[in-house]
Amino acid sequence: MAYSIQKGAFLVRLARSTVEEYLRTNKLKKMKIDDEKLLEKKGVFTTIETFEKIGDRINRELRGCIGFPQPIYGLAEAVMKSALLAAFEDPRFPPLEIDELNKVTFEVSILTEPKLLNVDKKEIVKYIKVGRDGLIIEHGLNSGLLLPQVAVENEWDEETFLCNACLKANLPPDAWLWKKTKIYVFQAEIFGELEPNGKIIKKEIHKRIEKNLL
Length: 214
Description:
Oligomer: single chain
Helix content: 25-40%
Shape: globular
């Protein structure tokens, strides 16, 4: 995909400003997008995290994360929609309040289209790489998605990643071995704030290095 840090920074700021405008005016942000790159249909997730700095230590906790695995919206529109969903509709958390805006960071993940792994389940681990792939597990009506950065942040190996994706889908941890379970992989370009309203970086998760400051 190769989105520039400038494009990524625009999208992260768009996510934040969309949520802020809704909190301040109770109206949806309106803007005209002319950039063809931002009109391309892409899967997108917006992640919101709490940010607390204690001495030299920074504590981050998930505050909301929702998005669209499939490319059904133009990129900018998908960011705006996913940002609002992450802020106000994540069932794991209460809706974000205006006094939290300066206490949270925004992160945008731009996804490749998910690819079904049609291989022997016993060999599936060989086709997944932590630090590169995200996972979608589907079985019947159950489905669960984990972004690529989740496995790196939790220091999981590939099998543990698969097990946790099953749990996210409300399935037993070994459900990835079931014959009728579908396993999809995807990749992501990830842009996020270092601190609330702060510098924005492109995250190189496979190296666990944050670079490209803007």
